[in-house]
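User: Before I run my own analysis I want an independent prediction to cross-check against. Here's the chain; please return only the structure tokens and, at the end, one sentence I can use as a sanity check.
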Amino acid sequence: MAVVALSHPKSTGATAGKTTKAPSTSSSVAATSSASPTAPASTSAASSSSSAASSSAASTDSTGAKQPLVVLNNTTTTGLAQEASKRFERGGWTVTKYDNYQNDIISTCAYYDPDVSGARAAAQALREQYPTIKRVEPQFSELSSWNSPVVVILTPDYQA
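Assistant: Structure tokens:
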């Protein structure tokens, strides 16, 4: 219901007669009582507009959020970071460095620098584009030495 209310506050005059969830409580109760057969239709319309808004926001974040990456191989597979770097570059990302790395990382993760604007959105967009990246997390202090907004650490669960 809150999503419906949030999608209608901008238009007060023209939609007041047909909405089931108006900003004022008395209108909402009256409209809900008299329009209960159409309530599911308006709910699905609200869901559609909500989905469209989410998709729009997601695509804006993904298109404008590509930040440089560092790719680190935390596996015993030789050349995995280089292979993954090429894959990410084919997908439109810039990889500034790749290397081997040794640490206890539970799953492949894109670590973002919380101090860099857009880094979190970039890490999330990268994960959406490459679902083999299981997590998105803020960088821990050791990763700051790589000087990158996003550091991807590959673990044995990574699949090309």
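Sanity check: Residues 39 and 139 are 46 Å apart (CA to CA).
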